[in-house]
Specification:
By secondary structure, this protein is α+β, with helices and mostly antiparallel strands. The protein folds into three domains: 34 residues; 85 residues, Immunoglobulin-like, CATH 2.60.40; 71 residues, no CATH class. The protein contains six helices and seven strands, in the order αβββββαββαααα. The strands form two sheets. It has a four-stranded antiparallel β-sheet with strand order 4-3-6-7, with helices on one face. It has a three-stranded antiparallel β-sheet with strand order 1-2-5. α4 packs antiparallel against α5. The radius of gyration is 22 Å and the shape is globular.
């Protein structure tokens, strides 16, 4: 949403609270101009929808949240954490979702918050705070995965036993996708390779 940063100054003496309001508004405009939200494109598919996100900022994008805004009778929320593979500036990436309504009503799909590798953010404060809280919980899960994998290495626990324990832990977990992704990496490669991916997320 474009923000109007032009001001009409009244004639005569300005009161202090008016000057403060003007300074605060200008600061808000400067911050908004410095940190843009990603660009969004949505297309329907036979099985759902595909969301294309383009990073128009100068910093790599490390996370974003989307919502279906203003659509009558329906709601939809989507969060994506890109800590392991940030989206570079000017790059675009696609994210398939199992929701056909999103592709059928692309004008209602809006970016609500975005986080960047330098710590900057864009979006409404409430949505940015929710995205940061979600990231904090995800990082705690990643650290616990690292602890379990390192413990398995030091105790010479078999990979099969480690995977079985992770699958059980993933049931009903808020970040089951991260745990199951680690299981997939363990099935395809070594514990060291899985640890390297997790350490990238934490770094």
């Amino acid at each position: 949403m474009e923000q109007n940063c032009s001001f009409v100054f009244p004639m005569g003496r300005q009161v202090p609270h008016m000057r403060f309001a003007i300074v605060l508004s200008l600061a808000s405009c400067a911050i908004a101009a410095q940190t843009p939200l990603p660009e969004l494109r949505v297309e329907p598919t036979e099985a759902g929808s595909v969301i294309f996100v383009k990073n128009v900022h100068t910093q790599p994008l490390t996370g974003f949240s989307l919502e279906l805004v203003g659509y009558p009778g329906s709601s939809w929320r989507y969060r994506e954490d890109l800590l392991a593979e940030p989206l570079p500036p000017k790059a675009e990436r696609k994210f398939p979702v199992n929701n056909m309504l999103v592709g059928a009503a692309p004008d209602y799909v809006k970016v609500q918050a975005a986080l960047y590798v330098d710590g900057s953010s864009a979006g409404t404060p409430e949505k940015v705070a929710q995205l940061r809280d979600n990231r904090k919980s995800r990082l705690e899960t990643a650290r616990e995965l690292i602890r379990r994998l390192e413990e398995a290495q030091s105790s010479s626990t078999s990979k099969d036993k480690l995977i079985a324990g992770l699958k059980q832990w993933a049931r009903g977990h808020a970040f089951a996708a991260l745990i199951n992704d680690t299981v997939t990496r363990l099935n395809e490669g070594s514990i060291d390779a899985a640890l390297e991916t997790l350490r990238k997320i934490v770094r």
